[in-house]
Amino acid sequence: MIEIFGDVLTDLGSDIDFASLSKVIKRPYIKPRYRISVLNPDETVNYVIPSSDIPENGISYTEEYQNGQRRNISLELINIDGKYTPSINGLWLSTKFRFDVGIAIRDQIIWFPKGIYIMGDVGLNHSDSNRT
């Protein structure tokens, strides 16, 4: 949760002043950080998917303010060891996950929540060179 106290932005106990945040946001290039958390049925975090398991360009996120579905995310995971193979005790239809986008400032990351999603379509791709 992000709270504002005076001119300081507080995110999970870390304090960043608005001047520092403003400088980072105004940079010509910002490398965003992504975090995908698989949730328990009560929407507490079960585990965070390591960024090493998400290939470059493996996340596609759209946000639209028209009628109907407002946000959509497509996620590709590296599944070489089979830990993301759809199963009843693992990732399955209706599994909930949370998507956060972050900005690195100094030695910490400020996370901005982008929503909780329900897995609706699961597919496996397998070739001699990769498994996703």
Describe the protein's architecture and organization.
This protein has a four-stranded antiparallel sheet with strand order 5-4-8-9. It has a three-stranded antiparallel sheet with strand order 1-2-3. A two-stranded antiparallel ribbon has the order 6-7. Strand 4 (33-39) and strand 5 form a beta hairpin. The radius of gyration is 17 Å and the shape is globular. Helices cover 6% and strands 42% of the residues. It has one helix at 18-25, and strands at residues 2-5, 8-11, 14-17, 33-39, 45-49, 59-63, 71-75, 96-105, 108-118. The chain has 132 residues and is mainly β. The model is unreliable at 1-13 (pLDDT under 50). The longest helix is centred in the N-terminal third of the chain and has 8 residues, at 18-25.
